[in-house]
Structure formats: structure tokens, C-alpha cells
């Protein structure tokens, strides 16, 4: 054996020491344990920021890399000075409000803490009821309201006393406090999927409240097998065509505690999108039917008892929507987000009885993707004007003119303007970077990064950026768009396996997607090509493409994936015999139905939390499938009808406490597959909910099963 000299050894060490840390990190294999270790590789993402009333500072909760407890941080509006201002031994910060330009009130544990910027003092102010949340300061600044067990409470700073304002909350039917539908029988709070909570009137005498009553919803058993004896636990969980939650808007008189409910139409079939007070004390109420077909804007004038409708929009083809509204600073007009045109846009309408036609404010060539936010002399919103894969913040001066793009970092950007509109804090992420806070002047200039959250073990590695491509549909004239991640150092002439996933609408996006992004990066490093496709139903390509999804679940969108497979197979580095698909929730649905409706299109599928029987969809899913009473043919599209078509490898992943997609439905499909002699695999988690990928322990176990399955059936070419 040839001996290495001292000088050769020294030279080798010198070369290695001179190599960049990122290059060295590439030599260490990335493992599943790395992805799900504690603390998380990506660290703790900062919270949504809260601006001081004078726009000089903003606060947020965050923890530096490796520190598990969220502290209270404050930055100057230019981002040049950042400091931790909370006591390091205090409980984690859950919520915060500014009481004046110098003082912050925050919820920590079961206490309100008061923090002074100028004096550097951080002290307990007073206790609050256990489980307090949704902290909002009164207009006078002497009190703060909060939600506890579905009721509204008031914390008085001078007396240090807590007063219960309502007696609305009723404890949940479910005895297991987990899962999407384990919610109070009645509460002040959002609906199952969305809605406001409460808001103070400008004079502080009234609080608008969103009251949700679930007692007329169906009782559905979700057995708890982890109890000492099997607990036949029940939750309120309705199906399409059933009565939904009853959602009402009430006006609570703070002094007396009396509640006056507004006369809104069919509260069991209409969701409350939002409500907002004008500076003069008028209340704007924004509602839409659960089917999304009809939307209405109402105004309640100060001192009035009857709502007045100011606008109604009806379209039978409308499905899942992005809605929002607020008052114009003049208190006479309303600005609202709507899909009246080919793209989502912001419109303005006079709130008087004039019955004006809404006027479009924003650029009709791209989609507005957020509710309007008005600060200073401008309106701020997010949109995809650069390309369908990115989301940027735009500013539109109230005096008129064209929208101006404020953010320029490539990726996803969500903005929070200062009260005077001169600065913008925004949350930014992209394909290779988890969410971080930045701040920039609204007039332009370079953005300054405020937080750096990932652990060194994350930043020392190189992560694969995506390519964005387009190709024609094989079934119509649409152009389809996809996001592709390829292994580094691909070898000429070698054929690589492809995994589509996680599949869903709106996935060809330059953003960080939590565990999904980490798992994609691991798969790429293992030698897989990763593909995500914006199938029909996605935003960014016009109303017709988006609304093709209505009444068409697991139908034309599967054709989009067939077109994408054909595109990938046309590339000389793709192995057409090693193509897989995976997704969760509706992505799991797509995975199952793709294998059953188009055998051989994918050789391997992993279906997590897959909805396979439309009869068991949720009441809010009427926005895409309507009801069995009106469209019975849609509800005949059960996956078990096509069970005999299974030819490819299929793994089911499901949590037994999944309230959104009941475990029962996948068990029924599994039974049919067994009866028909089909071979498939199953990974279940007794306590996992619909959000299994975000649950500690279950995420590592179930993702491990998925990756192991792909490795077994796709990693090596078949012989």
C-alpha cells in the first residue's frame, strides 16, 4: 500500500480547511432524523409584527436559533436596532398590543406583562383567566378584552380585575381536545375554517362579536383508542347538505352586557367573512353563502337598528374564494376584494344608498391575493404581478395613480405596513429559505433582514432551488405550470426517478412550505426529481382555469397531471417507469384517484389523509361539490367504485383522529380493495389529526414510511 507523506497530509488538511463551510456540509448525508430533530433545523419563525401607533417601532415574538421560548422583540422602523425586551425567564409570548408609543402589553402564561421601551422595564401587570387569547386593547387604552373558553372577558388595568362580559361559551361535545372539529358547542370565535372574532367600536362602548353555535350540527363518532378503555368520542361534524354552524354577528354593550344580534340572512348557510368599524362608528359586515355563489356587503349606520345592503354579487360558477373588505379612510366608501373580473381585484363602492357600481382599483392583469390594508395615504395588498409563482406587496396611493411594487425579493412576501404607511415589514420566504421578517421603506430601497431563524446546521448546508416551467395541456388549450427540483450533479445519460408531490392546487410557488419543503429537499438529495403542478383550481391563470374545479374534483385536474407526466417523460434524464405521486388531504385524493382512474400513469402512490367519499366531505366543501340533493351524480364518485382498477403500488397514510377526512372512509375503501384481492399498504397513527405532518412524533414516523415506500419501489430501476 502506498504511504502518504507528512507534506501530502498537511496539504490535504490545508485544502479541506480552505473549503467553504457550505461545501463541507454537502458531504454530510442529510437524514430524516436531521429534519425532525429538536430544536428544528429551521428554528422558530417570527410572529406577525405589531406596529407602535407612532410608526417608530414594531414588535413581534420570536426566539433566536436554539432557544425554544418565544420572547418579545422590538425593532426600529428602519431595522437598524433590534433588541429582546422581555424577561428571559418569563413564559413564552402568545399575543401583544401597544398601549402607547412606548409601552407594550403581552400575554404570557396566565398574566399580562407590561414592557416599557424607554425605561427597559418588563414586569407582570396583572393576572388573567387561564387560557386567555385574542388580546385587543380598548380605544381608551385603559382596558383590554380577551377570549377565554368561548366568552369575552375584560381586564381593567387600574383595578387589576377581570370581568366576564358574556356567558355564551358552551364546552365542546368532544372529550378529546384535538382535531379540527373539537370546538366549543357555542363560542365567540371564528368558524371551523374562517371568520372574525370580535372588534371594538371607535368609542369603546360596543364590541362587535362573531357568535358560532354548533349544537344543530351532526354528531359524529371519532373513537379514542388511546384512552384506558376505547372512548366512543363524538364531535360536531356535518356533511354536505347538512345544517352548518349558525354564525351570527352581535353588538355587545360593554357597560350593560346586553347583546343585540343583527338580522343577517340564513346564518346556518352563510359565513361571516369579516366585519369592520368605520372611524365614525358605522359597521361594515361582509358575508357569503357556504356555496360561495352569493356575496353581500351590509352597512349598519351609527345608532341604526337595521342593516342596509350596499352590494350583492352572484355567480353560479363561483367556488372556493378569497374575500375581504375594509373601510376607505374617508368613512364613506368601502374597499373590497372580489372575483368579479377574470382576476381577483380590489374594488371601491360608495356606502351610501346610491347603489353605485363597484370601481376596480387594481391592475386587472394579475390576481390580488390578500384583503386590503390601508395605512397613511396608501392602500397595501399582495398580488402575483411578477409571475404566478411569486407573491409581492404593492402600494396604491389613495389619491390615485398606478400600483407600485414595494417588495422585490424573489419568493413569497406578506406585508404589514406601518400606521403612517412609510415603512413595510414583510414576511419573506422562498424555495430555500424559511420565513423571516424584513423591513423596507414604502418609497423603495433595499430591504433589511430583521430575523435569522434557522440553526447553523441549516445555514451551513446547500439547498436545492426550483426551476419553473410551462408546457401545454394535452386535453385543451391551457398552458400548465410546474415547479421542478433536480438533484445536483446529475450524470449524463442517467435516468432519474420522479416524484410528483405534494400535489394540490397552488403548489408551483416559490416559498418555504415547512415540513413539506424539508422532505422535498431530502428526496432530491436521495436522487429523486420533485415536481409540483398548478392543476386547474389554482389562482394566477384566470377565472376560467380556477373555476374548472367546480364539480370536477379528481377529474380534469388528473388530466393536468397526465399532461405533466407526458412532459417529464419527454426529458431524456427521466425514467418513465419510475414515476410516483403523493399528497395529503385533497392531494391524497388526487393520489388515490390518479391510480384508480388512470392505472399505470404513476407506478407508486402515497395517499395521506385522502378524501375518498364525497358523502363524507365537510359542510364547507359544498363550495366545490354542492350537495347530494342538488348534484347527486357528484356524490356517486366514490373511490371504492374504481377499486378494481388498482394495479400500481399504493400506501395509505391516515390519522385516526382526522376529523376533516374521517378514518372510517379510508377503512371502507381498504375493505373493498381487500375483497377484490388488491395489494396495498397502510400506515396509520392512532392519535394523529388531519394535520399529521405538523404533529410531533407522527411527522417523523409517517414521512419515514412514505420515503421508505418510494425507496423500495422507485429508487432503483426495475430489472
Overview of the structural elements:
By secondary structure, the chain is α+β, with helices and mostly antiparallel strands. The strands form ten sheets. The chain has an eight-stranded mixed β-sheet with strand order 37-38-40-39-41-42-43-44, with helices on both faces. Strands 13, 14, 15, 16, 19 and 20 form a six-stranded antiparallel β-sheet that branches. A hairpin with a 6-residue loop joins strand 35 and strand 36 (448-449). The longest helix is centred in the C-terminal third of the chain and has 16 residues, at 698-713. It is globular and about 75 Å long. It starts with 5 loop residues before the first helix and ends in a 6-residue tail after the last helix.
Amino acid at each position: 500500500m502506498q504511504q502518504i507523506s507528512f507534506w501530502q497530509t498537511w496539504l490535504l488538511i490545508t485544502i479541506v480547511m480552505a473549503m467553504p463551510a457550505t461545501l463541507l456540509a454537502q458531504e454530510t448525508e442529510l437524514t430524516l432524523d436531521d429534519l425532525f430533530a429538536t430544536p428544528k433545523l429551521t428554528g422558530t419563525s417570527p410572529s406577525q409584527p405589531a406596529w407602535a401607533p407612532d410608526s417608530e417601532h414594531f414588535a413581534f415574538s420570536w426566539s433566536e436559533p436554539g432557544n425554544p421560548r418565544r420572547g418579545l422583540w422590538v425593532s426600529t422602523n428602519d431595522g437598524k436596532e433590534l433588541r429582546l425586551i422581555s424577561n428571559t425567564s418569563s413564559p413564552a409570548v402568545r399575543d401583544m398590543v401597544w398601549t402607547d408609543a412606548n409601552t407594550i402589553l403581552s400575554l404570557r402564561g396566565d398574566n399580562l406583562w407590561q414592557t416599557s421601551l424607554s425605561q427597559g422595564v418588563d414586569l407582570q401587570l396583572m393576572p388573567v383567566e387561564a387560557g386567555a387569547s385574542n388580546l385587543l386593547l380598548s380605544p381608551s387604552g385603559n382596558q383590554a378584552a380577551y377570549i377565554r373558553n368561548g366568552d369575552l372577558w375584560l381586564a381593567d388595568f387600574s383595578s387589576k380585575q377581570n370581568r366576564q362580559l358574556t356567558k355564551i361559551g358552551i364546552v365542546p361535545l368532544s372529550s378529546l381536545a384535538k382535531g379540527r372539529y373539537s370546538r366549543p358547542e357555542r363560542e365567540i370565535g371564528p368558524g371551523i375554517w374562517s371568520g372574525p372574532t370580535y372588534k371594538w367600536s371607535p368609542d369603546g362602548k360596543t364590541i362587535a362579536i362573531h357568535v358560532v353555535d354548533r349544537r344543530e350540527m351532526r354528531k359524529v363518532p371519532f373513537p379514542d383508542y388511546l384512552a384506558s378503555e376505547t372512548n366512543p368520542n363524538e364531535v360536531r361534524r356535518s356533511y354536505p347538505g347538512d345544517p352548518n354552524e349558525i354564525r351570527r354577528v352581535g353588538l355587545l354593550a360593554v357597560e350593560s352586557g346586553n347583546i343585540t344580534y343583527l338580522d343577517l340572512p340564513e346564518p346556518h348557510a352563510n359565513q361571516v367573512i369579516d366585519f369592520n368599524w368605520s372611524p365614525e362608528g358605522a359597521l361594515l359586515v361582509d358575508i357569503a353563502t357556504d356555496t360561495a355563489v352569493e356575496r353581500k356587503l351590509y352597512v349598519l349606520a351609527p345608532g341604526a337598528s337595521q342593516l342596509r345592503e350596499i352590494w350583492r354579487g352572484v355567480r353560479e360558477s363561483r367556488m372556493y374564494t378569497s374575500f375581504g373588505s375594509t373601510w376607505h379612510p374617508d368613512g364613506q366608501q368601502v374597499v373590497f376584494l372580489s372575483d368579479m373580473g377574470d382576476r381577483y381585484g380590489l374594488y371601491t363602492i360608495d356606502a351610501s344608498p346610491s347603489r353605485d357600481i363597484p370601481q376596480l382599483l387594481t391592475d386587472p392583469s394579475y390576481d390580488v391575493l390578500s384583503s386590503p390594508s390601508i395605512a397613511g395615504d396608501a392602500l397595501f395588498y399582495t398580488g402575483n404581478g411578477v409571475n404566478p409563482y411569486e407573491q409581492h406587496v404593492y402600494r396604491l396611493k389613495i389619491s390615485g395613480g398606478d400600483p407600485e411594487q414595494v417588495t422585490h425579493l424573489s419568493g413569497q412576501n406578506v406585508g404589514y405596513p406601518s400606521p403612517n404607511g412609510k415603512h413595510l415589514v414583510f414576511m419573506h420566504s422562498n424555495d430555500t429559505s424559511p420565513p423571516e421578517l424584513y423591513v423596507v421603506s414604502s418609497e423603495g430601497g433595499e430591504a433589511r433582514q430583521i430575523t435569522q431563524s434557522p440553526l447553523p446546521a441549516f445555514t451551513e448546508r446547500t439547498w436545492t432551488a426550483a426551476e419553473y416551467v410551462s408546457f401545454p395541456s394535452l386535453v385543451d388549450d391551457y398552458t400548465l405550470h410546474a415547479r421542478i427540483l433536480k438533484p445536483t450533479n446529475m450524470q449524463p445519460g442517467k435516468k432519474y426517478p420522479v416524484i410528483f408531490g405534494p400535489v394540490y392546487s397552488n403548489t408551483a410557488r416559490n416559498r418555504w412550505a415547512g415540513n413539506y419543503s424539508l422532505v422535498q429537499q431530502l428526496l432530491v438529495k436521495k436522487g429523486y426529481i420533485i415536481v409540483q403542478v398548478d392543476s386547474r383550481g389554482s389562482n394566477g391563470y384566470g377565472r376560467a382555469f380556477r373555476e374548472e374545479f367546480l364539480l370536477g374534483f379528481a377529474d380534469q385536474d388528473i388530466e393536468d397531471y397526465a399532461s405533466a407526466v407526458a412532459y417529464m417523460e419527454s426529458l431524456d434524464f427521466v425514467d418513465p417507469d419510475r414515476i410516483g405521486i403523493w399528497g395529503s388531504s385533497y392531494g391524497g385524493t388526487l393520489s388515490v384517484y390518479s391510480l384508480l382512474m388512470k392505472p399505470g400513469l404513476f407506478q407508486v402512490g402515497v395517499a395521506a389523509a385522502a378524501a375518498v367519499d364525497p358523502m363524507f366531505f365537510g359542510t364547507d366543501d359544498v363550495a366545490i361539490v354542492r350537495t347530494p340533493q342538488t348534484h347527486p351524480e357528484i356524490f356517486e364518485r366514490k373511490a371504492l367504485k374504481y377499486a378494481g382498477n388498482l394495479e400500481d403500488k399504493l400506501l395509505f397514510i391516515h390519522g385516526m383522529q382526522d376529523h376533516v377526512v374521517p378514518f372510517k372512509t379510508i377503512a371502507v375503501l381498504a375493505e373493498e380493495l381487500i375483497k377484490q384481492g388488491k395489494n396495498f399498504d397502510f400506515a396509520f397513527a392512532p392519535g394523529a389529526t388531519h394535520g399529521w405532518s405538523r404533529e410531533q412524533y407522527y411527522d417523523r414516523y409517517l414521512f419515514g414510511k412514505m420515503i421508505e415506500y418510494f425507496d423500495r419501489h422507485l429508487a432503483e430501476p426495475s430489472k
